[in-house]
Here is the input.
Amino acid sequence: MLDLVSSWESSPTQPSKQHRIIAAIDLGTNSLHMVVVKIDPTLPAFSIIAKEKETVRLGDRNLTTGELKPEIIEKAIAALRRFQEVAKTINAETIIAVATSAVREAPNGKAFLHTIETELGLSVNLISGQEEARRIYLGVLSGMEFNNQPHMIIDIGGGSTELILGDSQQARILTSTKVGAVRLTSELITTDPISTTEFQYLQAYARGMLERSVEEILANLESGESPRLVGTAGTIETLAMIHAREKSGVIPSTLNGYQFSHQDLQELVNRLRKLSNSERAEIPGMPEKRPEVILAGAVILQEAMTLLGSESITVCERSLREGVIVDWMLTHGLIEDKLRYQSSIRERNVLKLADKYHINLEYSDRVAKFAESLFDQTQGTLHHWGTDERQMLWAAAILHNCGHYISHSSHHKHSYYLIRNGELLGYTETEIEIIANLARYHRKSPPKKKHENYQSLLTKQQRQIVSQLSAILRLAVALDRRQIGAVAQVQCEYYPQLKQVNLLIFPSQSDDDCALELWSLDYKKGVFEEEFGVRLVASLEKSNINNLS
Here is the structure.
């Protein structure tokens, strides 16, 4: 198990100033959830100190347009405002928020997130289905012992179901399918109690949608492996609670580790299908607003277990929200000894995409190093971007030429498309959008408001990141114009009084005049000059680069 235990005890040797309090919010299709945790970096571990939930039903969208409804948006913002107040009361230093399928699919989803940022000052990260699955895996791993054995994880949400195959070290397979308790209820169930015809179609539809994910999971099991099935999220927890009450008559203090069989689930599904919504509401352990969607969720689980050949399921109370916390700890260097493989998820997936599109990695790595060097040397003077932006610039530099995979003509535009649709794990949808735009503008026209891809950036800050860092990327590309590593090093000298940047170019070979690189810099510098309000002067330096400090 990842050393992020669910319990924590204070110790005189661990002063409280070391503890960090973080909140994570999940804007799900059915409910909005927040978990507030206390992190002890010395372990590293976190304990859950508060939980909040509001059933908002973002998935109950306009049937004609698919848009989020105004009254539901209003309800969601009110819930988020309350969450913020709770987090503030507990002294949370930051709130990390993610949105999933309902917001991903709504035409006005991004506008909704922009409204949240404007009204509440809360930045919500939109994540892909695969990225959601990765963070669910991290959450489960933080709360359950895997013993180096493979596990299958199923998370049934309101709008999607994630199926994952992973072990103690890594997630082998991450899938996300558009079947969820709210989605299937609204799309397929019109009768109450459900008619036999609708019930049979519900089963067949869920099975058909899950087949591809299940096949992928089963195909990646090694000979002799028989992984246990772990279930997370509201539908499965509700089914476990009902099962526990009926079997033992008592409510378990925790559902973590609770098991029930496939056969017990089938019996429960057969009972639920014969009941009306109001009758289901009377079942002991049934949460408010769950009765109308529980049948669809239970059918999804039943079909998944049948396809996977699982006789039982074990409940884990940790899922996406806790995975968001673990991911934050990884990216902030709070987990050093465990899951190093996971902490490099971004880099590995960028390189995986580079390999997929046959990128010359030796060349793109040089461009990336030039981009990072220019970024570092101009930080604090020409710009004030930080680690996150530097990392996105690196990713864009590695992938900027991937559009050649489609065609040389307009390859920068193809690069945008390939990156945008490349499922870069470890990044939010906004970060992927920024990386794709940076690659898009490494040549030709600078960013313009009329460009659809540039318009898709929601905030002024995001557009500024693209405008400024793509200008830096253009110079980095120019510095290896011949793609032979002619330039060994570049040094920036900034003269604020003159509003001038001198770019000193150190050649790899003393007899190389780097004429083509200097010409390319002169050709591309206009965008940089306009963006930063400076004059750029590039010159070749013949002094020994080893003498530079």
Summary: Residues 210 and 542 are 63 Å apart (CA to CA).
